[in-house]
Design a protein that fits this description.
The complex is a heterotrimer of chains A (about 200), B (about 300) and C (about 325). With about 200 residues, chain A is an all-alpha fold. Helix content of chain A is about 70%, strand content about 0%. Chain A has a domain at about 1-140. Chain A has a two-stranded antiparallel ribbon. Chain A is globular and about 60 Å long. Helix content of chain B is about 30%, strand content about 25%. Chain B folds into two domains: about 55-175, no CATH class; about 180-295, no CATH class. Chain B is extended. In chain B, strands 1-2-3-4-5 form a five-stranded antiparallel sheet. In chain B, strands 6-7-8-9-10 form a five-stranded antiparallel sheet. Chain B has five helices and ten strands. Helices cover about 60% and strands about 0% of the residues of chain C. Chain C has 16 helices and no strands. The termini of chain C are far apart. Classes of the chains: A mainly alpha (about 200), B alpha+beta (about 300), C mainly alpha (about 325). At the A-B interface, helix 4 and helix 5 of A face helix 1 of B.
């Protein structure tokens, strides 16, 4: 597999949320607006990328028996860093994401990449993999956030786009929890129709 | 053996390195976090009252609002009345007359749990701006005898906001350090001439000095007591008013009552049983101040 | 002769009632309420019903075309969905609302799950729930007073339907007085005949009862669901500390509409006899729980939707034993 493929497969073909169906909890919970979704995606990408790098560097040093605790220590360190940084520089975003920032620690997407990929591959490959999967996650969340914010709140990044009239009475259903399930279901169906067909 | 030692060592080293990195990040971001949080609270407070600075009286609950020249402009308080889906975080500003200067209801992202599309309309200006300029009894729904229009189909949320604001006004009104009219302590006087800024005045009647009015401060049982006294040239007390006190609820507060304060006109009263410290402090302070300002009485 | 030789899976003996006929019968049973609603609320009700039905038919045709299926808009199921959805809307809603509700009902609740027979929840109720979540203010305040009556069914109160009044009597006057008048004979009479405000098709308990009994007699509606629902509802309305009396609870809100026409939907209710009892009882219990302790004044639609979701599980646990089958004991399994 060439390196370009390594990067792109995480974006769409093996998209964590829409194809592999992992990391669903933040995808459903914080995709109410584009800003929250994008912020969450970038935070997860940061953690994924750096934990992949560190784990890849240390992959030959870590004894097999304690690899999971070591992975979790490394991941949680990066999560705590992003937690502090976001709290200091993006307090609004931090408040909107709430408990889902610390919960990145237990996002199975990140531990999954550490275990399945970074602990077995070179640093360059792990960087590409982390970036691909992380950006794929960000992409999925942002698309969900965009659909839900536009329909459910009548805005995109806070700007009214269908006029004030629609903003006054939008499809509130979309920003409610069932709206998240509806959007993820429809996106999954579209992915199945157009992407899976390609691979077969 | 080596493998066990290896495992322990690896974990230990990783844990130590992680802790060191985290402590660096923490020491760098901690002051920034404190600063942003302070800024956010301040921004929230500024939305409900026009003021430059805020002095916290009760942590996270009550602030005194001060303008750029240091003059008191009002108070800001936070209340959490029970709404339809949970407590509603509300910030309210009051001006010196006890009128509402602004109401801010936290958004859904800040912890509001009302129904989207219905209850969350309490965050919109159409609803919350109704409160501006109203005081005490008017802060109720029209159905309940007040002047606030409820949001259609969201009566519970609307009523909760009204109750919260009303309760807050009742609770915190006495923190409004209102600059009392000096005539309250010296009746029949037409004019006051300031001798010491914000502290001492001559009371003039028909261009004659009939006495002085001063503001004094003393340590009460809990907090300081700030009071205003009018004294005639015959060294008799014309009136006493309490400007600020924070004495024990139900006991020390009796020093604010007219009944007790009026006794000063007939000479110094006895201390109040149960509030000895507060009342004794006030009596002693007034004695001291009158002695201190004696020369102005001539 | 050729028909006899057709080889197919069971069932081999088919009844005379097919889908199309059943749908027509249900629509006929709803006709009295339909006509009465136009009398009560005027042409506005007629417009909403027609718009809703047309939108359902169009969505059904478009979706079936897009999914490459046979277009079956003549079987009447889309018409029925449109009619039931409109019956569940307040008469004063903006005219685009039934269009959006119908689109959600047909596209998301019905066709995306495979069309008639595969939907797991009642499409009309799904449409209503979607509208309720999205435009709650339109769905809870656009009431019309009925011709010659008041919205509440009692004199002097024009701003609330009977169940809203029962839920928050304090908002409209002296609570004790209002509740007493709601439980009094004139109010109950208005509720029974339908001289009250409410959703378009839910007002007249009498006409819905007639339609429902007609469907039970011709065998389209299963009496087990109806009895289970009404039985558990009546029992709990009697036992629990509700503010209204038994007759008030029976005739108010959308109970009869839900019991006879929506809970009994063939597709979304269990197929086993025992399962239908459980389904009906569950609906009744949930309805009264929502009415007494819930946030909404009325609980019929949500209780039916909830029980719809439980239908596959109920079917699984009440599966009839196959003739000759015996329970295999675990010891034998070794």
């Amino acid at each position: 597999m060439n390196r370009w493929n390594l990067f792109t497969r995480g974006l769409v073909k093996e998209n964590a949320v829409l194809v592999l169906m992992i990391g669903l909890c933040p995808a459903l919970a914080v995709s109410g607006t584009v800003r929250d979704a994008f912020g969450m995606g970038l935070a997860a990408t940061f953690v994924l990328l750096f934990s992949n790098v560190i784990i890849s560097i240390m992959r030959k040093k870590i004894p097999n028996e304690v690899r999971i605790p070591v992975f979790i220590l490394i991941i949680s360190t990066f999560v705590t860093i992003i937690d502090y940084v976001m709290q200091a520089f993006q307090p609004d975003l931090y408040r909107a994401l709430g408990v889902f920032v610390p919960l990145i620690v237990v996002n199975c997407m990140i531990l999954g990449r550490a275990e399945a990929f970074a602990s077995k591959n070179s640093i360059i490959n792990s960087i590409l993999d982390g970036l691909g999967v992380g950006l794929g996650f960000t992409l999925a969340l942002t698309v969900m956030g965009a659909v839900r914010e536009i329909l459910g709140n009548g805005t995109f990044l806070g700007m009214a786009i269908f006029g004030e009239g629609f903003k006054k009475s939008p499809v509130i259903f979309m920003i409610l929890p069932p709206g998240a399930f509806l959007v993820i279901g429809v996106l999954k169906a579209l992915i199945n129709k157009y992407v899976k067909k390609e691979t077969q | 053996m080596t493998s066990t030692r290896n495992m322990v060592l690896t974990l230990l080293i990783v844990a130590i390195v992680c802790s060191v990195i985290l402590s660096f990040v923490y020491s760098y971001t901690e002051p920034l976090i404190a600063e942003t949080q302070k800024q956010m609270t301040l921004d929230g407070l500024k939305q409900v009252i026009n003021a430059q600075e805020f002095v916290e009286i009760i942590p996270d609950t009550l602030w005194r609002a001060v303008d750029s020249s240091g003059m008191l402009t009002g108070i800001v308080f936070r209340v959490f009345p029970q709404g339809y889906g949970g407590p509603i975080p509300i910030t309210v500003g009051l001006d010196l007359d006890g009128k509402v200067t602004g109401v801010r209801v936290a958004s859904a992202a800040e912890g509001l749990k009302e129904t989207p599309g219905l209850g969350v309309k309490i965050t919109e200006p159409e609803f919350k701006d109704q409160f501006i300029g109203k005081c005490g009894p008017a802060v109720q729904l029209k159905n309940d005898g007040g002047e606030i229009d409820a949001i259609t189909a969201a009566t519970i949320s609307s009523r909760a906001v009204c109750n919260g604001v009303k309760k807050g006004i009742e609770t915190y009104l006495n923190y409004l350090e209102k600059p009392l009219d000096k005539k309250c302590v010296f009746s029949g006087v037409q004019e006051f001439v300031e001798i010491i800024k914000d502290t001492l005045w001559y009371a003039l009647k028909d261009a004659d000095t009939v006495g002085i009015v001063f503001i004094g401060i003393t340590q009460g049982f809990v907090d300081c007591i700030k009071f205003m006294v009018g004294v005639g040239t015959d060294a008799k007390i014309n009136g006493v008013k309490i400007l600020y006190s924070n004495e024990t609820e139900g006991i020390g507060v009796v020093i604010r009552e007219e009944e007790f304060l009026d006794k000063f006109k007939q000479g110094y009263p006895e201390t109040i049983t149960g509030a000895t410290v507060s009342s004794q402090a006030l009596i002693n302070a007034i004695k001291d101040y009158i002695t201190r300002y004696k020369e102005y009485l001539k | 002769m050729r028909e006899l030789l057709t080889v197919s899976a069971s069932p081999h003996t088919r009844g005379k009632i097919d889908i199309s006929l059943a749908m027509k019968m249900v629509i006929i049973a709803l006709l009295p309420s339909f006509i009465f609603s136009v009398y009560l609320f005027g042409l506005r009700a007629l417009y909403i019903i027609l718009i809703s039905i047309i939108a359902c038919i169009v969505c059904e045709a478009v979706m079936q075309r897009m999914l490459g299926k046979k277009i079956t808009i003549t079987d009447g199921s889309a018409v029925l969905t449109g009619l039931l959805l409109a019956f569940n809307l307040p008469p004063g809603v903006p005219l685009w609302l039934p269009v959006v509700g119908s689109a959600f009902a047909i596209i998301f609740a019905k066709q995306l799950f495979g069309g008639l027979g595969y939907n797991f929840i009642n499409p009309a109720l799904a449409g209503r729930a979607f509208l309720m979540a999205s435009w709650p203010s339109a769905m809870t305040k656009e009431w019309f007073a009925p011709a010659g009556g008041t919205l509440s069914g009692i004199d002097g109160i024009t701003s609330a339907t009977p169940l809203t009044l029962l839920k928050n009597p304090g908002n409209y006057g002296t609570p004790e007085l209002i509740i007493e008048r709601l439980n009094d004979i004139p109010a109950i009479k208005n509720l029974f005949f339908g001289e009250i405000g409410g959703c378009i098709g839910e007002t007249s308990a009498l006409l819905l009862l007639i339609g429902g009994l007609f469907l039970i007699i011709i065998g389209i509606v299963d009496y087990r669901i109806v009895l289970g629902y009404l039985g558990s509802f009546v029992l709990l309305a009697f036992v629990l500390p509700t503010k209204g009396n038994l007759l008030f609870h029976l005739f108010s809100g959308g109970l009869f509409l839900g019991v006879f026409f929506m809970a009994t939907d063939w597709v979304t209710s269990p197929v086993t006899k025992k399962g239908r009892w459980i389904f009906g009882i569950g609906c009744g219990v949930l309805t009264i729980i929502i009415r007494v302790w819930g946030g909404y004044p009325e609980g019929v639609s949500y209780s039916i939707l909830l029980m719809n979701v439980f239908t596959p599980i109920i079917d699984r646990f009440t599966k009839e034993k196959v003739f000759g089958d015996r329970k295999v004991k675990k010891e034998v399994m070794k």
